[in-house]
Amino acid sequence: MSYDVSVEVSETSLHRRRAAISSVIGTTIEWYDFFIYGTVGALVFPTLFFPDSDPYAGLMQTFLIFAIGFVARPVGSFIFSHFGDRFGRKTTLIFTLLMMGIATTTMGLLPTYETIGIWAPLLLSILRFLQGLSAGGEWGGAVLLSMEWAGRDRRGFFASLPQLGSPFGLVLSSTVVSLLLTVSGDAFFSWAWRIPFLFSLGLVIVGLYARLRVLESPEFQKVLKDENVSQAPVLESLRTYPKTILWAILVNIVMFAAFYTFSTFFIGYGSTYLNLDQNLLTNATVLGGIAAALAVVLFGHFSDIVGAKNVYVVGVLSLVVWAFPYFVLVNSKQPFLIVTAVAFAFFTFGAMYGPLASFVASSFPARLRYSGSSVAYAIGAVLGGGIAPMISTFLVDNFDSAFAVSTYLISLALLGLIGALKLKEL
């Protein structure tokens, strides 16, 4: 098999656009699927899957299954980054999209505890694990496919485009749930909650069409042509770049903790502890997702001008500044102040997330880039995002104050700053 690395100049722009568009569409679908569990779960799963528990225990059990998806992400990153660095980004991304869609659609068909008892949360856990496997392999491939089609001077911007999948997925999932809450009323808690999961099937068809039209990235084609493919890319990246992976993990932890505190925990905290209107909570996260998307593109662009590391540090410092005012505004129970708190919180997240892709990916050589960046991203997701809703719920329940969560976020932000200062782009 031969690989043409001399792509016609006239076609490069077309394939660059296709790579960027398909990456944004694919990651949006992947994150919609991954987030819909957190959005719907925080609202109805404690009652449907853990009916014998009190509200606090039911929410914690829901968040425990939520965390299973993050535990699976490093496993998925090990598996799919191996194939991504050996056989290509495109093929791997098609498989991760299919796996996520099947798992999410099946969630929408799952019987509840009332029908099959303990099997309901057990099956939900298995499907959440499959979601995590898929998410673990998705991020690295989508970022690389877009970034490696870009020129050297536009890496930050093009690498930030797949990052839009996270806020877009949040906006889409929250919008769908908000509309269903409005339209279906009480029926949402009996059967309409299934619709957001079943909606995934149509989205996957769109995503597959977009990804099948993309060519493999030119940088990976060159790796193939030079016969420079690693036989065990994950192990080689761990052996050759252990410190780089460690610093990249620290960079990811705070970003993930911030995102899932401001989204999944916020909905659970607002509905369980503050008794806020559920439409207000989901609509606030919709606006937050829009703010995050704007920040991702803006700060991704700035990263090509002043450097990804510098932009990321600004984002982390913004989080430190906003950690306490955020909960002051949320605890006011005033809709305008709540929306303001959430919007700016997500903007600080976007300031970190926008430059993060090129910052982390550029710290590894092309032949190990999928593996090194994916492993760091997935482990950071577990230690940051996967346990953040549970830790935040525990802190609020034991300290009787959400400001304990602010202190938690600031502590992780300091770790992120250490990682950023140590991490070096190649």
TrEMBL record:
<keyword id="KW-1133">Transmembrane helix</keyword>
<feature type="domain" description="Major facilitator superfamily (MFS) profile">
    <location>
        <begin position="19"/>
        <end position="426"/>
    </location>
</feature>
<dbReference type="InterPro" id="IPR011701">
    <property type="entry name" value="MFS"/>
</dbReference>
<feature type="transmembrane region" description="Helical">
    <location>
        <begin position="116"/>
        <end position="145"/>
    </location>
</feature>
<feature type="transmembrane region" description="Helical">
    <location>
        <begin position="31"/>
        <end position="50"/>
    </location>
</feature>
<dbReference type="GO" id="GO:0015293">
    <property type="term" value="F:symporter activity"/>
</dbReference>
<feature type="transmembrane region" description="Helical">
    <location>
        <begin position="335"/>
        <end position="354"/>
    </location>
</feature>
<keyword id="KW-0472">Membrane</keyword>
<dbReference type="InterPro" id="IPR020846">
    <property type="entry name" value="MFS_dom"/>
</dbReference>
<keyword id="KW-1003">Cell membrane</keyword>
<feature type="transmembrane region" description="Helical">
    <location>
        <begin position="375"/>
        <end position="396"/>
    </location>
</feature>
<feature type="transmembrane region" description="Helical">
    <location>
        <begin position="157"/>
        <end position="181"/>
    </location>
</feature>
<feature type="transmembrane region" description="Helical">
    <location>
        <begin position="280"/>
        <end position="299"/>
    </location>
</feature>
<dbReference type="GO" id="GO:0005886">
    <property type="term" value="C:plasma membrane"/>
</dbReference>
<feature type="transmembrane region" description="Helical">
    <location>
        <begin position="311"/>
        <end position="329"/>
    </location>
</feature>
<feature type="transmembrane region" description="Helical">
    <location>
        <begin position="92"/>
        <end position="110"/>
    </location>
</feature>
<comment type="similarity">
    <text>Belongs to the major facilitator superfamily. Metabolite:H+ Symporter (MHS) family (TC 2.A.1.6) family.</text>
</comment>
<keyword id="KW-0813">Transport</keyword>
<dbReference type="InterPro" id="IPR005829">
    <property type="entry name" value="Sugar_transporter_CS"/>
</dbReference>
<comment type="function">
    <text>May be a proton symporter involved in the uptake of osmolytes such as proline and glycine betaine.</text>
</comment>
<keyword id="KW-0769">Symport</keyword>
<protein>
    <recommendedName>
        <fullName>Putative proline/betaine transporter</fullName>
    </recommendedName>
</protein>
<dbReference type="InterPro" id="IPR036259">
    <property type="entry name" value="MFS_trans_sf"/>
</dbReference>
<dbReference type="Pfam" id="PF07690">
    <property type="entry name" value="MFS_1"/>
</dbReference>
<keyword id="KW-0812">Transmembrane</keyword>
<feature type="transmembrane region" description="Helical">
    <location>
        <begin position="402"/>
        <end position="421"/>
    </location>
</feature>
<feature type="transmembrane region" description="Helical">
    <location>
        <begin position="245"/>
        <end position="268"/>
    </location>
</feature>
<feature type="transmembrane region" description="Helical">
    <location>
        <begin position="56"/>
        <end position="80"/>
    </location>
</feature>
<feature type="transmembrane region" description="Helical">
    <location>
        <begin position="193"/>
        <end position="212"/>
    </location>
</feature>
